[in-house]
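Q: Convert this sequence to structure tokens.
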Amino acid sequence: MPKGKHSRLQLRLCNSINLIAEASQIACAFPELRCSFGDRSIVPDIAVFLWSRIPFEPDGEVPNDFLLSPDWTIEILSPQQSSNKVIDNILYCLQNGCQLGWLIDESDRSILVLRPGLQPLLLRGSDRPPVLGSVELELTVADIFSWLKMTSS
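A:
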């Protein structure tokens, strides 16, 4: 189960993405959403879907079942998790239509970026991780980890 730092990063990332992308119907970030496709189901910490790919119900409501891969999958590594197992889930998404994967490692304040057909990028500090297409999210790795500090010292 996610702990405090994991939960905080998940909340702030979802909120930041949705603040930029949801109102203009570009994309939407969903926390802990089961995505079933191919021969597996995965539950990324954050699954981001382009608006045009969200399988809305006829009345415009979001469905319960997402039978497709996310466009951008974000995983936040917990101390007890196997990084290879989490990377395997990201790679599975990329092999099934996902455009972008992030693995956020709180322990060393880095983000591993995975994209189809490209070398992985390991980003830290003032590096700006790539985001999904037209989502105009301007964040550095340091900005993301700064959300962990909630009080001044």
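Residues 4-146 form a domain with the tt1808, chain A fold (CATH 3.90.1570.10).
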